[in-house]
Specification:
Blueprint lengths: L6 E5 L9 H17 L2 E6 L4 H7 L4 E3 L16 H6 L4 E4 L8 H13 L3 E6 L2 H8 L5 E4 L11 H4 L1 H12 L6 E4 L5 H10 L3 E4 L1 H4 L4 H13 L2
Parallel strand pairs: 1-2, 1-8, 2-3, 3-4, 4-5, 5-6, 6-7, 7-8
Helix pairs in contact: 1-10, 5-7, 8-10
């Protein structure tokens, strides 16, 4: 499955106000913003919420993680096959809050591809971004961990990291690069797009907002400069 770029991917993480019925409600807000402003918005949700969310909305639903195992005697793992059958079209991998080793990352990407899942591989710096690109995921998301959850955006504070990551990735393959960490306002998004990314990965700016629709409107308008 392909998704139209640029994309806003909202990571629900494990915030209490983005679980269960609240995950469904927030996903519907994302869906409405997507329809109202003509912007591709996807959501990454807890594996236990994939089924209910994917049936409640038509926007892309991602798993927040999969493990590098296939169907078999594996207790407590998140399987690519299972998240796909529950409605996910892709998965995040190697988020700074759930890092995995390079060999496990390679296996996870291979298994996801076998199951028809898109992969968004997070990287904390340009070297990791380049290494991840060699594994041919569908997206690379550059996110310096020290800025995640802050009010200091990567596009404003570390533009050179974004451009260096795009250059490193493009030297390996033509994989779309997203960026995240500290993105809170439309101007952060506009700057990121100007730097050359093809979307953003965000979490708390939306999930912890009292007005997530307003935040997404600001983001969408910044992407299209309107």
């Amino acid at each position: 499955m392909k998704i139209k770029l640029p994309v806003i991917l909202v990571n629900f993480k494990a915030y209490d106000n983005a679980l269960g019925d609240k995950a469904e409600t927030l996903a519907k807000v994302c869906e409405k913003a997507s329809a109202d402003f003509g912007c591709t918005i996807g959501v990454a949700v807890q594996s236990g919420d994939i089924y209910r969310v994917s049936r409640a909305v038509s926007i892309p639903v991602f798993s927040e993680h999969i493990d590098a195992v296939e169907a078999g005697p594996h207790t407590g793992y998140v399987l690519a096959k299972n998240v796909r059958e529950n409605g996910a079209i892709g998965t995040l991998l190697n988020h700074s809050e759930h890092r995995i080793k390079i060999d496990e990352l390679e296996d996870s990407i291979d298994i996801a591809r076998k199951e028809g899942l898109l992969t968004v591989v997070c990287a904390s710096n340009e070297e990791i971004a380049q290494a991840a690109a060699s594994l041919n995921p569908d997206f690379i998301a550059i996110e310096p961990p020290e800025l995640i959850g802050t009010d200091i955006s990567v596009s404003g504070a570390k533009p050179e990291l974004v451009t260096a990551s795009i250059q490193r990735v493009s030297s390996v393959s033509q994989i779309p690069v997203l960026c995240g960490a500290g993105i809170k306002k439309g101007e952060d998004v506009a700057k990121a797009i100007q730097l050359g990314v093809q979307g953003i990965l965000v979490a708390s700016a939306v999930t912890l907002s009292k007005n997530p629709y307003g935040v997404l409107e600001d983001f969408c308008r910044a992407i299209f400069q309107r």
